[in-house]
């Protein structure tokens, strides 16, 4: 057997795990590892400008591909800078392994230079964390880390590696474990057959059914099965912000996404339904509004790989713990072989009602002859890219507009921080996507507030030639904060605007990229086309949009699903 | 309605495992009333007992969230079935004059033992369900109590049910 140092074993383990890219930033405690990285060329390292961005890059990669991302940082500030990124991945169940250097084991607890208790600091925001106590454990720990990160309900796993574990002068026998088994960790591999049967019977007997799908469908690679089931049943389908793309948005059975800024028809259909089939969704507070008023007439079937997601905020009548793909497959088979059919008449009248809701509102906004509306920018981008781009976003109004007006027909295309709501996510996430999808269009739809939270990554884009398109919906304000201040604080705009914005064109150019500014409505389409035509350049498109626009629909706080503002003046 | 529960957990005997359990309770705003933990006959496992209270939904979440921790091997809510609950208490009482005989009688009634004696202090050992220990403290009154140490609750199911690998 081969003898390798801890650092070489770590890098070899990554190779054997099939890891092509890692994102990171070197420092004292990680130097043995960085030296091992230098002496090989299979694992490629992307040097970011801030560790938070490394995590978001790994995250963007993971969301676009479904494969775990990998991060490498040093101890202390290197490690703590990853926390926001790790928490972002944790909230959205994104598979990821974060390798952190640590001071030598002999120094731990002595407040050594760049020492932080990363095991303790990361504990509340990881699926699991592991600490290396002997160099010979490294291959097994790495194997375990990827296994835990990517199975069951996925999530980030941190590996804490004291510097002496990677010392170059001590060598150990290397073998990468083929299998890993943990007696205390056994995620469900299929759902309970009896529960699935019961659920299908309820579905076939429903009169006003709706399917409510979440990010779990995308993570569980079950979009195809879900689509087949929805079409077979002819039920309406809505999905969460995280589930966008799990069902084609251009399909007539799709009623749009639901919740705080969801469509009128999706929220109305949920509220009035008699049966909800929840698939890989977690009844988040941004979806349910006040839980005690949530869908009063509905019985709920809830499929989730994580038992703790079931009956957490809203009680499920039929809980089904299992991977969504396996459960949907069984459901589809039962529906196909069942002699019972959904009541055609009841379903027709349900669809008639839904179509009336659609006709009453649908997605709309007021256009203006001279002011550029943020919604129309997104609509135009959707048209110019045939709805086929990878779109990342930051957090705020632009995120909602992007989710509402870009027409996604495929999963893994819409990439946003839905759970944690992390500003600064969009650009590095887009970079992570572009690196592994060089021929695809990758848009980062952002705002002038969010983009400045990781703007330093323009430098990384230059170094690694990552020609993403940054679409800056610039309203010169922290739009969502301002909207809430308009609605709840009598328009007292406390610290929600910035009056010293940089010249984004010059900034982009300073980093070696192209900057385009759009402030006239007639320039919007030609200049967007010009930006998109520059395939091999990063283009920063700074668009001056309406400064007072709000995002609608918006659910009324503490109301039911059906209580919404449809514009600044219409409330239903 | 908030019910008191005794949750018994088999945990991998690894550094940091206990902090995950304790962290989970504070992170999710659950309540810990007592907590005991020690290795079992299998040195790779620890047995942890936690008493808590909450609505049925909260208790269900606590057990599910505990089960989600990678180092939790198995757990049981002992209060769901017949079970034996024990807590141990060491208590120092002021024992002078006429009190000495009175305390001795109370200790006997509660089937405790006086395990250390000085001219003015009795140290008493008492084991039982938590409410029995509460009852003893009430019986001797607060004025004479110098120091109390309680172990927290340990529990085990009655009959043939076992919590093991």
TrEMBL record, chain A:
Alphabetically list the UniProt keywords.
Amino-acid biosynthesis, Branched-chain amino acid biosynthesis, FAD, Flavoprotein, Magnesium, Metal-binding, Thiamine pyrophosphate, Transferase
**GO CC entries:** acetolactate synthase complex
Its needed co-factors are:
thiamine diphosphate; Mg(2+)
Q: How is the cofactor bound?
A: Binds 1 thiamine pyrophosphate per subunit.
Domain Thiamine pyrophosphate enzyme central, chain residue ranges per copy:
196-330
| Gene Ontology molecular-function annotations | acetolactate synthase activity; flavin adenine dinucleotide binding; magnesium ion binding; thiamine pyrophosphate binding
Look up the record and name the pathway of this protein: Amino-acid biosynthesis; L-isoleucine biosynthesis; L-isoleucine from 2-oxobutanoate: step 1/4; Amino-acid biosynthesis; L-valine biosynthesis; L-valine from pyruvate: step 1/4
**Cross-referenced Pfam families:** TPP_enzyme_C, TPP_enzyme_M, TPP_enzyme_N
Q: Which GO terms describe its biological process?
A: isoleucine biosynthetic process; L-valine biosynthetic process
E.C. designation(s): 2.2.1.6
Claim: RNA-binding is one of the keywords in the record: no
> Cross-referenced InterPro entries, in alphabetical order?
Acetolactate_synth_lsu (IPR012846), AHAS_TPP (IPR039368), DHS-like_NAD/FAD-binding_dom (IPR029035), THDP-binding (IPR029061), Thiamin_PyroP_enz_cen_dom (IPR012000), Thiamin_PyroP_enz_TPP-bd_dom (IPR012001), TPP_enz (IPR045229), TPP_enzyme_TPP-bd (IPR011766)
Tell me which residues make up the Thiamine pyrophosphate enzyme N-terminal TPP-binding domain: 5-119
UniProt catalytic activity: 2 pyruvate + H(+) = (2S)-2-acetolactate + CO2
PANTHER family hit by this protein: ACETOLACTATE SYNTHASE CATALYTIC SUBUNIT, MITOCHONDRIAL (PTHR18968:SF13), THIAMINE PYROPHOSPHATE ENZYMES (PTHR18968)
Q: Which family does it belong to?
A: Belongs to the TPP enzyme family.
Q: What is this protein called?
A: Acetolactate synthase
């Amino acid at each position: 057997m081969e003898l390798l140092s801890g650092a070489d074993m770590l890098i070899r383990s990554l190779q054997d795990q099939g890891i092509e890219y890692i994102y990171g930033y070197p420092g004292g405690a990680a130097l043995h590892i960085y030296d091992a990285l230098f002496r090989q060329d299979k694992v490629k390292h992307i040097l970011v400008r801030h560790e938070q961005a490394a995590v978001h890059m790994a995250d963007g990669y993971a969301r676009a591909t479904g494969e775990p991302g990998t991060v490498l940082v040093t101890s202390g500030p290197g490690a703590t800078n990853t926390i926001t990124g790790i928490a972002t991945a944790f909230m959205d169940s994104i598979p990821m392994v974060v390798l952190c250097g640590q001071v030598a084991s002999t120094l731990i607890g002595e407040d050594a230079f760049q020492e932080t208790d990363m095991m303790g600091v990361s504990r509340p925001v990881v699926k699991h964390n592991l600490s290396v106590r002997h160099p010979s454990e490294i291959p097994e720990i790495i194997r375990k880390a990827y296994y835990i990160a990517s199975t069951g309900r996925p999530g980030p796993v941190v590996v804490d590696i004291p510097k002496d574990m990677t010392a170059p002068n001590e060598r150990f026998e290397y073998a990468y474990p083929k299998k890993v088994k943990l007696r205390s960790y056994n995620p469900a591999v299929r759902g309970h057959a009896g529960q699935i049967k019961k659920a299908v019977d309820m579905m076939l007997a429903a009169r006003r059914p709706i399917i409510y799908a979440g990010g779990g469908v995308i993570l569980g690679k079950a979009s195809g099965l879900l689509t087949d089931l929805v079409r077979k049943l002819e039920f309406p389908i809505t999905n969460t912000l995280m589930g966008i793309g799990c069902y084609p948005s251009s399909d007539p059975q799709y009623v749009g996404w639901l919740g705080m800024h969801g469509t009128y028809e999706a929220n109305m259909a949920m509220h009035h339904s008699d049966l909800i089939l929840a698939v890989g969704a977690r009844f988040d507070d941004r979806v349910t509004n006040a839980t005690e008023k949530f869908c009063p007439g509905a019985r709920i079937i809830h499929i989730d790989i994580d038992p703790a997601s079931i009956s957490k905020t809203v009680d499920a009548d039929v809980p089904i713990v299992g991977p969504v793909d396996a459960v949907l497959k069984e459901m589809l088979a039962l529906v196909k072989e069942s002699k019972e059919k959904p009541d055609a008449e009841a379903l027709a009248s349900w669809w008639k009602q839904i179509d009336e809701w659609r006709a009453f509102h649908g997605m709309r906004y007021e256009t203006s002859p001279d002011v550029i509306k943020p919604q129309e920018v997104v609509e135009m981008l959707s048209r110019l890219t045939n709805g086929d781009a990878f779109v990342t976003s930051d957090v705020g109004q632009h995120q909602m507009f992007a989710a509402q007006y870009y027409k996604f027909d495929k999963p893994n295309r819409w990439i946003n921080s839905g759970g944690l709501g992390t500003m600064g996510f969009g650009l590095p996430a887009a970079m992570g996507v572009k690196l592994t999808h060089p021929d695809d269009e990758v848009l980062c739809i952002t705002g002038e507030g969010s983009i400045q939270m990781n703007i330093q990554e323009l430098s990384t884009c230059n170094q690694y030639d990552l020609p993403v398109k940054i679409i800056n919906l610039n309203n010169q304000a922290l739009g969502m904060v301002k909207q809430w201040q308009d609605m709840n604080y009598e328009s007292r705009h406390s610290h929600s605007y910035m009056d010293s914005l940089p010249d984004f064109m010059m900034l982009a150019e300073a980093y070696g990229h192209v900057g385009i500014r759009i402030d006239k409505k007639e320039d919007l389409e030609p200049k967007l086309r010009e930006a998109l035509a520059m395939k091999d350049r990063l283009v920063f498109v700074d668009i001056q949009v309406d400064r007072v626009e709000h995002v609608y629909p918006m659910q009324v706080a503490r109301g039911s699903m059906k209580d919404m503002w449809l514009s600044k003046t219409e409330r239903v | 309605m908030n019910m008191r529960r005794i949750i018994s957990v088999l945990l991998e005997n690894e550094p940091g495992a206990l902090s995950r359990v304790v962290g989970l309770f504070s992170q999710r705003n659950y309540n810990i009333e007592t907590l005991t933990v020690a290795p079992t006959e299998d040195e790779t496992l620890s047995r942890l007992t936690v008493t808590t209270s909450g609505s049925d939904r909260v208790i269900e979440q606590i057990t599910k969230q505990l089960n989600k921790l990678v180092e939790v091997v198995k757990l049981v809510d002992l209060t769901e079935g017949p079970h034996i609950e024990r807590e141990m208490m060491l208590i120092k009482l002021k024992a002078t004059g006429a009190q000495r005989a009175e305390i001795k009688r109370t200790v006997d009634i509660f089937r405790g033992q006086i395990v250390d004696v000085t001219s003015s202090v009795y140290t008493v050992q008492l084991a039982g369900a938590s409410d029995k220990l509460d009852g003893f403290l009430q019986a001797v009154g607060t004025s004479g109590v110098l120091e109390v140490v309680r172990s927290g609750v340990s529990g085990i199911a009655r009959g043939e049910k076992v919590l093991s690998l």
